[in-house]
Amino acid sequence: MNIAILSRGETLYSTQSLLKAGEALNHSIEVIDPTYCNVFIEDDKALLQYHDKLIDDLDAIIPRIGASNTYYGTSLVRHFEAMEVFSIVSSEGIRISRDKWASFQIMAKAGVPLPKTTLVSQYYAEDFLRDFGQGPVIIKLLEGTHGTGVILCESYKNALATLETLRSTRSRFLLQEYIEESKGADLRVIVVGGSIVASMRRQAKEGDFRSNLHRGGSSEAIKLSEAEKNAALRAAKSLNLGVCGVDILQSKRGPLVLEVNSTPGLEGVENTTGIDVSKHIIEYLERHKR
Predict the structure, then answer these.
(1) Which residue from 72, 76, 138, 185 has the fewest beta carbons nearer than 10 Å?
(2) What keywords would UniProt list here (predicted)?
């Protein structure tokens, strides 16, 4: 197959891991920087030029679209789809997964277990906040990623002050219950082609509640319970994502899906579990193209 990885960082671990896996399985695989893609429509056909070359021989793409480039990135994936090039994650899947509230609405419809979450109205923020009681509460900016834009407010008073600041900047945000028993840990589950291929437990560093590894957290390979497996698979299916990372909190009432990432980093999970996730992704492409 002719495969392209859509990435602005050719030297990044995830990009290099996918390149090596593709080459090891005897595919022609390259990195395309979305910055240098020119998409256009001519004679009723979707066409794409990379630098000065027309691209018309690809079988599949692997999008590695950063959160800061969501609009153009999803447009580029949609263009490849119009050219009948298979993508491991659809343009719509990327778009929805990047919208925290929209993804929660879709997962709720599919019966995915979720923490209590509220989209905050600019006019009734205080009323919504009272519904979460006087204890800790999480505030999430809709555009945040990798743990940024996530605020733990220790009390109602602290949360109210934060809400007033966010309202003054016209930011869009969610209120979410704080799962105290998770103790700053979550599960990262990698789903590829409807199957779980790797999972790890991530623990936040001391003094933080965000378990992201690049923020100094630690990790260990774990074996999932049946309930955790079911939650991860149902979340991936509901958002129609062929490849994704599902983040799960362990609560007193069972696993709760916190977020679904359509472009999960591979370094942490591959190094922690010893599993070649990139190989699973390439094999998923192979199965789809048979």
Answers:
(1) 72
(2) ATP-binding, Ligase, Magnesium, Manganese, Metal-binding, Nucleotide-binding, Protein biosynthesis
